[in-house]
Write a structure and sequence with these properties.
The complex is a heterodimer. By secondary structure, chain A is an alpha/beta fold. Chain A has 3 domains: about 90 residues, no CATH class; about 150 residues, 3-Layer(aba) Sandwich (Rossmann fold); about 120 residues, 3-Layer(aba) Sandwich (Rossmann fold). Chain A contains 20 helices and 7 strands. In chain A, strands 5-4-6-7 form a 4-stranded parallel β-sheet, with helices on both faces. In chain A, helix 10 packs across helix 20 and helix 14 packs across helix 16. Chain A is globular, with a radius of gyration of 20 Å. Chain B contains 7 helices and 4 strands. Classes of the chains: A alpha/beta, B alpha/beta. The interface between A and B is medium-sized, with 29 and 24 residues.
Chain lengths: ~375, ~220
């Protein structure tokens, strides 16, 4: 009971006045799911432990943050769900993980440590990196695992990672790319496994601190969220400046010489972690607009109101998720764009997965690339 | 659809197969037989209170003593026995293991079989979970190509296994901790041989760095 009171205070659920805007905007509820953020907020306020733990919808939330964005009372629904999942995890309740929980197993093994991962197999000879010390730390994220796991539908998230290092080199920076990097723990934290998350956080913070880097850059939206918000208590000294790759590039846009690569109409998918969680809407759009020959058109839902890829934390993948993805891809096609750009590897994975549907393929297929990749392609050689 | 014959009228059950049951009921009501019936056992009281919780395996924290044990184990590989998980398909490999047992073949005992309906069911997550929980080696086995009970399940198994090997290599575990084998129901001797070979292979690698030696089979 008491822990619920603490959650209610921390996440301001007591401010809820039952207007139901959260449930009305929830993408899951929109496509027919029985998830009701309003009901969960009410149950937390009343401390109805049994009701919350028995609720099959606890792990259904996409944590996309649309409800918190629309909430007039400022209830932190996302952090409330995270706290509730932590309680559920302690009680032994776990979500039905898509992919059989393969990624959660991987992350827990990384948290344990003991093995030397082969994280740098993607580095090509023309890319210059430093192994341990440097001014800029480049955080790759787990893209190498994603590419190996999802090769069936041509996910190539490493292309963005390579492009980012190439751009950094062009700007005269030799970034630190560490072979001792471990998963940032984002998905474990959002599925309630705080203990493993803390092990990962301590390791990673120490790694970056020892590198002596003043700037931290990552091309992954989820890693950025975790580093910026969730790692805060783990920094013992002054943390480095934490930036997304698009933010870093937007700052140095003048130094890059870009050339046109043909005329293209491009639309941009806001990753939920980058947009609503961190408020970064401008830099990726700035970059796309600065590319010669690229015309940026936004979808009907964009910026603060954009719809997410429905699979951010590897916690749920069901027909509702599919419905959301197909709707979003239809929206992208309706703009007349031939390419959808994004900044998060998971957006790419989930939309590409939805595009595999043989019945809808014609209707929803659209080329997907990372913003970083597009910028690197437009570089003058 | 025509209604089934119903000699007992409206009140009796409509399905024809209930008839024999009615006759058994008559036998049961015989007073002699009823007397022979043993007295009913007292029912257990219904469980109250919170639902039963399964104990969670805690993440292993390697203690100094454990580290020493591991070092010792690596020094003397012949004295250390690995923990091996074997995924065996219901139709071929599990029966193959059975044949090995029935034929009283001698083989290494340091493995646990998990029976799956088809080797195609073994997705990367299963193998990774086994390593997460401290297995030193994982063997996936199914029917020979062309013999699969589900026609192409073992082809799927081979695809999934290739993916698993990639993930395990990325994670930094040795590739030799994994093996894919096709064993038919008649190949008891082959099952014993594969187990012996694989146990020796894993034994030479030493304990898995992720096991922490905490899982004792």
């Amino acid at each position: 009971m008491r822990e619920f009171a603490v959650i209610a205070t921390e996440t301001k659920t007591w401010a809820c006045y039952d207007c139901g805007k959260c449930t009305a905007t929830c993408p899951i509820a929109r496509v027919g799911g029985s998830l009701s953020p309003r009901r969960q907020v009410l149950a937390t306020n009343l401390g109805h432990r049994e009701e919350i733990l028995a609720d099959g919808n606890l792990f259904v939330c996409l944590s996309c943050g649309l409800c918190s964005e629309r909430c007039p009372a400022g209830v932190g629904y996302g952090s409330m769900v995270r706290h509730l999942r932590e309680i559920a995890y302690r009680e032994g309740i776990e979500p039905e993980c898509p992919h059989g929980g393969a990624f959660h197993s991987l992350m827990r093994m990384m948290a344990k440590g003991g093995t030397q991962q082969n994280r740098l197999g993607w580095l090509t000879e023309d890319l210059q990196t430093a192994p341990a010390q440097g001014e800029v730390f480049f955080w790759t994220g787990c893209t190498m695992y994603y590419d190996a796991f999802f090769e069936d539908f041509q996910v190539n998230s490493l292309a963005a990672t390579r492009a980012a290092v190439r751009l950094l080199n062009r700007l005269g920076v030799t970034p630190v790319v560490s072979p001792h990097e471990r998963c940032c723990g984002h998905d474990l934290l959002w599925n309630g496994d705080r203990k493993s998350f803390e092990l990962l956080a301590e390791h990673n913070v120490k790694l970056v601190k020892d590198s002596g880097a003043k700037t931290f850059v990552t091309p992954c939206a989820e890693c950025l969220r975790t580093w910026k918000l969730d790692y805060e208590p783990f920094f013992t000294s002054k943390p480095p400046r934490i930036l997304h790759m698009t933010e870093y590039l937007a700052e140095h846009l003048q130094e890059l010489k870009l050339k046109a690569n043909g005329q293209r109409r491009v639309t941009y998918q806001d990753p939920c972690r980058l947009g609503r969680h961190l408020g970064i809407y401008g830099p990726p759009r700035e970059l796309l607009e600065a590319l010669p020959g690229v015309e940026l058109v936004d979808m009907a839902h964009w910026g603060r109101g954009s719809i997410c890829c429905a699979g951010s934390t590897w916690s749920n993948c069901d027909r509702y998720a599919k419905h959301i993805q197909v709707d979003r891809l239809r929206e992208a096609r309706a703009t007349g764009a031939e390419l959808m750009a994004t900044c998060c590897p998971k957006c790419q994975i989930h939309f590409r997965c939805a595009m595999q549907d043989p019945n809808l393929k014609e209707e929803i297929e659209i080329e997907m690339r990372d913003v970083t990749e597009l910028v690197a392609e437009a570089l003058e050689s | 659809m025509p209604e089934p014959e119903n000699p007992k009228g409206e009140s009796a059950p409509a399905k024809p197969e209930t008839k024999p049951r009615a006759s058994t009921r008559q036998v049961k009501s015989d007073p002699d037989k009823r007397a022979k019936k043993p007295p009913r056992k007292k029912k257990l009281p219904k469980r109250t209170g919170p639902p039963r919780k399964l104990p969670r395996t805690p993440l292993p924290e390697m203690k100094e003593a454990e580290k020493e044990t591991r070092k010792e184990a690596v020094k003397k590989p012949s004295e250390w026995n690995p923990n091996i998980v074997v995924f065996a398909c219901n139709w071929c490999s599990y029966a193959g293991a059975d044949t090995a047992g029935v034929s009283r073949m001698e083989h290494e005992p340091h493995f646990r079989i998990i029976r799956v309906m088809c080797s195609g069911r073994v997705q990367p997550a299963f193998v990774l979970k086994a390593f997460e929980k401290g297995a030193d080696g994982v063997l996936v086995s199914g029917c020979h190509f062309g013999d699969c009970h589900y026609i192409f399940g073992n082809e799927r198994a081979a695809e999934q296994f290739a993916k698993t090997v990639k993930m395990v290599k990325l994670l930094g575990l040795e590739e030799n901790r994994l093996r894919l084998e096709w064993i038919s129901a008649a190949e008891g001797a082959r099952f014993a041989q594969v187990i012996n070979e694989f146990t020796e292979q894993v034994r030479s690698l030493g304990p898995s760095p992720l096991s922490g030696n905490h899982l004792k089979i």
